[in-house]
Design goal:
Helices cover 23% and strands 32% of the residues. The protein has helices at 2-22, 155-160, 327-338, 353-406, 409-412, and strands spanning 36-40, 45-48, 59-62, 72-75, 78-81, 90-95, 101-110, 117-122, 128-133, 143-150, 165-168, 170-172, 175-181, 189-198, 201-210, 221-227, 235-240, 253-261, 268-272, 276-279, 288-296, 310-312.
Length: 413
């Protein structure tokens, strides 16, 4: 019996030692108030009763009840939870024989951090902005550290350093998942290091950044869309550079405009280098949705996100503006109202270069058609006259021959 009891005690001691060795519990004042314990989901978590003696009897409770949601082992003031899952999250307390509280812990379970996903972009040719997200839900408090290494150095930096310059990517408390490198150099290369840390460990992502390849401006601002007077199929859109983009002749932007009727799902897209554009194929009487985006004029990087939607409806005849009329014009209006109503005249916008090209093309085609018709008429007249001439000469020869046969032979001689 004694041998059996000793063997049983040894086995229990080995189990406790193994649980202590593989336990993933972490206690740190840096991650919360004192008394918090952290463990990994699926691991064996060990809790110790700090005020108990090894020989004293200790009673453990989970949320005030001496029952536990997972398999456990309590021995010599230590509690081991085997293969703990989220159901084991809660308050654990140990008590002496009289029921007095000796110590208490709040256990939180989760996962070690995964490698964060990081995206960097340049919105103004001066500052690098990096954004990141955790690649997994850890269920634990998490913090991030962001640094960078600059590889392309100036001559002055080469004299002060070996091969690179390191620095901190600045983070704002209001945006914990974002940092920025201020006053960066456009033709330089950087390596960004974003580290994710929680009570169970840390992981990091290294991302090499070439500034000219990650340019992505902010969307254009102050988009205004308005109808063109007396043009029922036109809308005029205007906008401005993003406020974050440097206003310099060396850093120009190009734009693309997308629009569609509200009731239609498909977009029409046009590109321009100007800060204004006229939509010439809007549908009469229908409200349209218009957006604009921008990109570096030399095609570096990516297009910006689309601006906020702006809606507008083309001009219609019901929106005629009131005019101040004199006596003479009033008489003319009276005369015009007595005439039968016809279709509304379309007044073209003469300042539109596309309209000028269309008018010139129409005139050219019309002149070409007239010229072809005239040439065909002339050719037909010429052919007809030529045929009449040939027929007349043949008839004259035939009549002469008959006349010669009718004459007496003496006259012929």
């Amino acid at each position: 019996m004694k041998m059996t009891r000793c063997a049983s005690c040894i086995r229990r001691l080995i189990v406790v030692l193994q649980a202590i060795l593989v336990s993933a519990s972490v206690t740190s004042s840096e991650w919360g108030e004192e008394g918090f314990k952290f463990g990994a989901i699926g691991s064996n978590v060990s809790l110790s009763c700090s005020r108990s003696r090894d020989s004293s009897v200790v009673q453990w409770r989970f949320n005030g009840v001496p029952r536990f949601p997972v398999r456990f082992l309590a021995d010599h003031g230590r509690l081991v939870l085997f293969n703990a899952d989220l159901s084991a999250v809660g308050n654990y307390s140990c008590h002496d024989e009289a029921g007095r509280l000796l110590s208490s812990y709040f256990l939180r379970l989760g996962h070690p951090p995964g490698i964060p996903s990081v995206i960097c972009r340049v919105s103004d040719y001066e500052n690098i902005s990096c954004f990141w997200n955790s690649s997994r839900e850890t269920f634990l408090p998490t913090r991030y550290f962001a640094t960078y290494r600059k590889h392309t150095l100036t001559e002055e930096e080469k004299l002060r350093n070996n091969n690179y310059v390191t620095g901190t990517c600045l983070q704002e408390p209001s945006r914990p998942n974002m940092c920025s490198v201020r006053n960066s150099e456009f033709w330089s290369s950087y390596t960004m290091n974003i580290t994710e840390e929680n009570p169970l460990g840390y992981s990091f992502r290294l991302l090499k950044v070439l500034m000219h390849s990650i340019v992505k401006p902010d969307p254009p601002q102050d988009l205004v869309v308005e109808p063109v007077p007396f043009a029922p199929r036109r809308l005029r859109a205007s906008w401005d550079y993003p406020a974050t983009w440097p206003k310099s002749a060396h850093f120009l932007l190009k734009f693309r405009l997308q629009y569609r009727p509200v009731a239609h799902p498909s977009w029409s897209v046009v590109e321009t280098a100007n800060l204004t554009d006229v939509i010439t194929d809007a549908l009469m009487g229908m409200e349209h949705v218009v957006q604009v985006s921008t990109k570096d004029f030399m095609d570096a990087g990516d297009w910006s996100d689309w601006s906020a939607e702006v809606r507008a409806t083309p001009w219609s005849s019901n929106e005629a503006e009131p005019r101040e009329l004199g006596p003479f014009t009033e008489d003319l209006d009276d005369v015009s109202t007595s005439e039968p109503e016809g279709p509304d005249p379309v007044v073209f916008d003469r300042s539109d270069p596309l309209e000028k090209i269309a008018v010139l093309a129409s005139l050219g085609i019309f002149a070409f058609v007239i010229l072809v018709v005239v040439l065909v008429i002339i050719i037909l007249i010429w052919i007809r006259l030529r045929r009449k001439g040939k027929d007349g000469s043949k008839k004259h020869d035939f009549i002469s021959a008959i006349h010669m046969k009718a004459l007496p032979k003496a006259q012929l001689l």
